[in-house]
């Protein structure tokens, strides 16, 4: 079926999920009703921060995701998405909520924390004189 220049696309079927500490990945499903969509307009907001805008252009039929970068770790965002068939023919917006991943603990830090906890337990379990003799020879 041919493209009608007056056609306005339906609201998109998209998912947004954390892909890293500072980014979200938006993905969508292409079906017959959305074959003429050429980009998704995306606005990302959180609290009182200024909105970030992204244009996720569809360059091939295989491209079904877009990374939204430059975000803050472990932060909840409102993501507003519109599917566009042309510059002025966009779908009504839909809003999704997603949270970026939290800060990950470095393996060395986990080991250090475990060592400190074990040392504290040992200090409580061992008589002070024995610990003093072991540590301050």
UniProtKB/TrEMBL annotation:
It comes from Cherax quadricarinatus (Australian red claw crayfish). This is Fibronectin type-III domain-containing protein. The keyword Membrane applies. Pfam families: fn3. It comes from the Eukaryota. The chain crosses the membrane at residues 108-128. InterPro entries: FN3_dom, FN3_sf, Ig-like_fold. Residues 10-104 form the Fibronectin type-III domain. Keywords: Membrane, Transmembrane, Transmembrane helix.
């Amino acid at each position: 079926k041919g493209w009608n220049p007056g056609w306005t696309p339906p609201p998109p079927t998209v998912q947004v999920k954390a892909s890293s500490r500072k980014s979200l990945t938006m993905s969508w499903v292409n079906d017959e009703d959305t074959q003429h969509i050429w980009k998704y307009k995306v606005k990302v907001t959180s609290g009182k921060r200024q909105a970030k805008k992204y244009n996720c252009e569809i360059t091939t039929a295989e491209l079904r995701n877009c990374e939204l970068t430059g975000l803050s770790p472990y932060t909840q965002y409102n993501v507003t998405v519109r599917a566009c068939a042309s510059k002025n023919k966009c779908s009504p917006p839909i809003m999704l909520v997603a949270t970026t991943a939290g800060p990950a603990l470095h393996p060395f830090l986990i080991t250090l924390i475990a060592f400190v906890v074990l040392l504290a337990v040992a200090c409580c379990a061992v008589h002070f004189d024995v610990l003093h003799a072991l540590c301050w020879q």
